[in-house]
Amino acid sequence: MALSVGVVSIEYLDEPQSPVSDFLKHLSMNLFLGLENGECWGGSWEGNAFLEFGRDALVESAELWCDDGGIDDSDRAALLAWITALPWRNGYIMLHLG
Question: Cα separation of 52 and 39, whole Å?
């Protein structure tokens, strides 16, 4: 059995404004927001969460949140632009929400 070892390094981003902050707060309480395809994993404790997403899975989560919340087109575009601008590595990102 192989053992994977990774080093987690956190680069804190500027505090996002709404709708990004609203989406992330919702995500931290609903960790997998409709994702059954295995493109997300993580966990949470005491108001903190670590979540790793594939790019498509995070976009899918954001789109679902926008659809469910009746988010207007301009806020949807702002959220998706924020997601696109994240420092992706090989199509994946790990977020610390706290």
Answer: 8
In sequence order, the 6+-apart residues with CB closer than 8 A to the CB of 79 are 19, 20, 23, 62, 66, 71
- Residue by residue, pLDDT tens for the chain (98 residues) are 789 898 888 889 999 999 999 999 888 877 665 555 567 777 778 888 888 889 998 998 899 999 999 999 999 999 999 999 999 999 999 999 88
CA distance 5 to 50: 16
CA of residue 48 relative to chain centroid, distance: 13
CA distances from 37 to 22, 33, 41, 61, 81 (A): 24, 11, 10, 12, 23
What is the C-alpha to C-alpha distance for residues 33 and 62, in angstroms, rounded to an integer?
Answer: 9
